[in-house]
Amino acid sequence: MPDVDGFYQRYINGREPLPYEAVLAKAGIAPNRQTVATPFLGVNAPQNDQGQRIALGVVPGSAAERAGVKRGDVLVKVGEVALRPDAEWTPEYRARYRGKAGQPLTLVVQRNGQTLSLATTVQERTATAFAPSLAPSSSPKQARVWKGLATGSTGG
Questions:
Q1: Dihedral sign computed on CA atoms, order 142, 145, 150, 155
Q2: Are 24 and 33 in contact, with CB atoms under 8 Å apart?
Q3: CA 59 to CA 51: how far, in whole Å?
Q4: How far from 148 is each of 54, 66, 105, CA to CA, in Å?
Q5: What distance in Å separates the CA atoms of residue 41 and residue 62, rounded to the nearest whole number?
Q6: Cα distance between residue 121 and residue 102, in whole Å
Q7: Residue 68 DSSP SS3
Q8: DSSP letters along 16-38, please?
């Protein structure tokens, strides 16, 4: 690598994404990307001793903030998903609202003894996972490197 300082400034200290495809291709590795969108409400609401979900924090810019959720609010319902003491609500919420970013979403909360319906929209955030594999056009030497990385041994 002739320009280590430039690499550091662009990719480590800077904001440019690492050039995975170009770098890993030299080793015969294909970085298979999988991007997944997940509904994200943006509220930290752990269960208290009575089984209620109390908002302790709201992520800035999130659907919960846009709805007006405040610290201390008791979450009762998120869209069509009721929050029950005997069940985790997030898997059901994510399954029901995956792929529905931008659609209307009503949050029902209790605040100071009053039940409020707060309007917002479904928000999703994306995450990218990498699953490296041996590139189809790899050389025998690259295949040995891959085998070493994948198994911890090059076999001799």
A1: positive
A2: no
A3: 22
A4: 49, 50, 49
A5: 6
A6: 5
A7: coil
A8: PPP-HHHHHHTTTEEEEEEEEEE
3-class SS letters over the chain: CCCHHHHHHHHHCCCCCCCHHHHHHCCCEEEEEEEEEEECCCEECCECCCCCEECCEECCCCHHHHHCCCCCCEEEEECCEECCCCCCCHHHHHHHHCCCCCCEEEEEEEECCEEEEEEEECCEEEEEEEEEEECCCCCHHHHHHHHHHHHCCCCC
Residues 46, 102: contact at Cβ < 8 Å? no
pLDDT in tens, 32-53: 888 889 999 999 999 999 999 9
Q: How far is CA 58 from CA 55, 67, 85, 98, in A?
A: 7, 10, 21, 21
Residues 73-132 have pLDDT tens digits of 999 999 999 999 888 999 999 999 999 999 999 999 999 999 999 999 999 998 888 788
> What pTM was computed for the model?
0.68
Q: Look at residue 59 and tell me whether its pLDDT is greater than 90.
A: yes
